[in-house]
Design a protein that fits this description.
The chain has 11 helices and 12 strands. It has 389 residues and is of the alpha/beta class. The strands form 3 sheets. It has a 7-stranded mixed sheet, with helices on both faces. A 3-stranded antiparallel sheet has the order 9-10-12, with helices on one face. A two-stranded parallel ribbon has the order 1-11. It starts with 9 loop residues before the first strand and ends with a helix.
Length: 389
C-alpha cells in the first residue's frame, strides 16, 4: 500500500486458530477466582471442581449425542489424533492404517511413526479431481478384511474439502474396520450426531471454535477396549492420568456452547462473506483459480478459501507483503509454516501448481470492509508485479 493509505489489521487465519470469544474470556477470568480443588479429591473443594469438569463432559456428550463416558479430555487435537492411532494398533489389533495424503501431519506423521514402530502397513486412498476422496478405492482396500483403522478428516484444513462421514462410517462397519476422524475444523461449526455416524474415534480442539488453546477432547466409542494412554492416576476413567486442565476445560465448555447456539447465524454470515470475496477475486485478479473444493460453497468449509494467484510475487513474498500490509493469512497449514517443502495438501491435489497460494480463512469477526481492504492490497501487489515483469 502507498504511504498515504492507512494500514488496516485484518485477521484471515482462523483455520490456524480463532480469537477467544469475549464471553469465554470473561468466564475463564471468573473461573480463575472460582474453585481450586483437585477434581479427584473427595472433599467439598474437590467436589465443586469435579462438578465443573463433569458438567463440561456432559454438555459435550449431549451436543454429540453420545455418552459422557465416551468423552476424554486432552491437550488438543494432536494428542487426540496420536492417541487414536496408537491405541488402535496397541489395543485393537490393527495391522493396517488407511489414510489420505491430505491429512493433517498430526495423523500422517503419527501413522508413519506407528507403522515403523509396530510394523503396521500404511496405505493411502486415491484422490479424485479437486482432492476428493475416491470412495470406490477405499472400499476396494477394505474388502480384504485385514484389521484396519481408517483415519480421514471431516474437513480439510487447507482447502476445506468435506468428507462424507456417513458413507465412510457405514463402509467401515460393513467391512469391520475402525474409523477415526479429525473434526478439528468442524467441531462447533457443524452438527455431528454420533448415533447416526459409525465413528470409533473423534478428535477436537477448543481453539478452533473460539476457545482456549492447549485443550481439546476425543470421543472413544464405549464398545472399544482401551488401556491407559497416559499412565498415572485414575483421571478420565483411567485412560489419561494427570490432573485435568480445569480452567481450559471450563473455557472449552463455554466456547462450544456459544458456538453451537450461534452456529446458524454465524455460518450464514461467513458464507455470504466468502461468496462476496470469491466474486471479487474472480473479477479483479488475473489468472486466479481456487484449490480443492474451497470455492464450492456446498462442498467445502465456509471458513476456508485457498487461492492460487499467478499475478502476485512468487517465492513467498506475497505472504510477506500481505503481512506488511496488516493482513494475516497463510500459504497452508500453520503447523507447516516453517517448512521449505510447501503444502503437502496442494502437492497431492495439483503437483504442477507452483503459483503463489494464499489460504484465507474467514471467521465470525470478519467484515466486508476488511475483505474490500484485502482486495485493494491484492490489486496493488498485482499492479506492482506487472511493472516488474
Amino acid at each position: 500500500m502507498s504511504d498515504s493509505k492507512k494500514i488496516m489489521k485484518v485477521y484471515l487465519d482462523n483455520a490456524a486458530t480463532t480469537p477467544l470469544r469475549e464471553e469465554v474470556k470473561e468466564y475463564m477470568i471468573e473461573a480463575i477466582n472460582g474453585p481450586y480443588g483437585n477434581p479427584s479429591s473427595t472433599h467439598q473443594f474437590g467436589r465443586t471442581s469435579k462438578g465443573i469438569l463433569e458438567g463440561a463432559r456432559k454438555y459435550i456428550a449431549e451436543s454429540l449425542n453420545c455418552s459422557p463416558m465416551e468423552i476424554v479430555f486432552t491437550a488438543g487435537g494432536t494428542e487426540a489424533d496420536n492417541t487414536a492411532l496408537n491405541c488402535a494398533v496397541r489395543d485393537l489389533g490393527v495391522t493396517r492404517i488407511i489414510t489420505s495424503p491430505l491429512e493433517h501431519h498430526a495423523v500422517l506423521h503419527t501413522a508413519e511413526a506407528v507403522g515403523s514402530c509396530f510394523d503396521v502397513k500404511v496405505e493411502l486412498v486415491n484422490l479424485l479431481d479437486k482432492g476428493e476422496i475416491d470412495y470406490n478405492h477405499l472400499e476396494s482396500l477394505l474388502k480384504d478384511g485385514e484389521p484396519t483403522l481408517v483415519t480421514l478428516m471431516h474437513a480439510n484444513n487447507e482447502v476445506g474439502n468435506f468428507l462424507d462421514l456417513k458413507r465412510v462410517g457405514d463402509m467401515c462397519k460393513t467391512y469391520s474396520a475402525y474409523f477415526h476422524t479429525d473434526t478439528v475444523q468442524t467441531m462447533g461449526h457443524h452438527v455431528l450426531d454420533l448415533q447416526e455416524l459409525n465413528i470409533d474415534f473423534l478428535a477436537a480442539s477448543a481453539h478452533k471454535f473460539y476457545g482456549p488453546k492447549g485443550v481439546g477432547f476425543m470421543y472413544v466409542n464405549s464398545g472399544l477396549k482401551q488401556a491407559p494412554f497416559i499412565n498415572g492416576g485414575s483421571q478420565e476413567r483411567g485412560k489419561r492420568g494427570g490432573t485435568e486442565n480445569l480452567l481450559g476445560i471450563a473455557g472449552m465448555h463455554k466456547a462450544l456452547q456459544l458456538s453451537i447456539e450461534s452456529m446458524e447465524e454465524e455460518n450464514n454470515r461467513i458464507v455470504a462473506l466468502k461468496e462476496y470475496f470469491i466474486g471479487r477475486l474472480k473479477n479483479e485478479m488475473e489468472g486466479v483459480y481456487f484449490n480443492g473444493l474451497s470455492a464450492d460453497l456446498d462442498r467445502s468449509l465456509c471458513t476456508v478459501l485457498s487461492v492460487s494467484l499467478p499475478s502476485l510475487p512468487s517465492g513467498g513474498m506475497h505472504l510477506f507483503s500481505l503481512d506488511m500490509n496488516g493482513i494475516a493469512a497463510s500459504g497452508g497449514s500453520a503447523c507447516s509454516s516453517g517448512s521449505s517443502k510447501g503444502s503437502h495438501v496442494i502437492s497431492a491435489i495439483d503437483p504442477e501448481n507452483t503459483d503463489p497460494i494464499v489460504r484465507f480463512s474467514i471467521g465470525k469477526n470478519n467484515t466486508q470492509e476488511e475483505l474490500d481492504y484485502v482486495m485493494d492490497v491484492l490489486k496493488e501487489l498485482q499492479a506492482q508485479q506487472a511493472v516488474t515483469l
